[in-house]
Amino acid sequence: MDPSDVMVPADVPDELIDTYVENYLNATAGTGSMNLFACDQKIEHLNDDFYGEGIPLSSNDPAHLFEIGDLSFSEGTLGVLAGQLGLIAQYARDAPDLPYLVKLNSKTNLVKTAQRDPVSMAMWDMDDVMSLVHNGINIVGIGYTVYLGSEHEHEMLTEAATFIRQAHELGMLAVVWMYPRGQAVVDEKDPQLIAGAAGVAACIGADFAKVNYPRPFEGMTAPESLGIAVEAAGRTGIICSGGGSMPPMEFLQRLHDQIHVSGCRGAATGRNIHQKGTEEAVRMAAACHAIICEGATVDEALALYQG
Description:
The chain is 41% helix and 15% strand. By secondary structure, the chain is α/β, with parallel strands linked by helices. It has an 8-stranded parallel β-barrel with strand order 1-2-3-4-5-6-7-8, surrounded by 8 helices.
């Protein structure tokens, strides 16, 4: 991708346009499409994703995430590793050049929606993020989760909008996780609601928005239905959730559909990468990169994964 083709938001200061473009290209491996390695589940899902039947014992150690990220980045097949600031701070000196996306808010899954509408407020601010930048860590942007439909959505939307503005003022990207969730939400995978969430992400100025894969509109396929959300997001790039662990062929086919049918500008993959041994995980990251950033077919990506 030519740097001149990067669309720079108008709230990025003129003197930091080059910084924003550099961060954008770093986060997307120079392609404009984001292969995001989601490493925020140790809060979101507690230890369920890291220890148990079918999960390698090595996955329980957080260092596993950063080893995968560093090796994949060195091979040019990973855009950005997303994790909470504290987690990144503990391990980033081992891989300071790896592009990082700092997740500013998170919550566990212990309190269910039936008990209380979800709320996830920021645990850090931009001064905390900049402390890592000043120490030589390659922070390219920030991330924030909003639960639309929660009775607390206004607080989360306000924080997200503020952080997006502050990130842009520093020449950084902003990625939002947009999840309809709460007692007012009847169907979290409603395709019209997913498209609405994508539009909200655009309205608060996000550069990319992670959404869940919707169920289909009547008379459409799921990939075509996701395409409605992509269109609704405008210049905000939609990256789709990787979901739970799936057989490699099924996962790569779904990813291919999301990119080449829906028109997504990337994907956020966690369990389908990190619930594997290191070498296998690095190959899966390469397979994802091939589909997201290089236009590879499912068979070509599967061949990369299989080594």
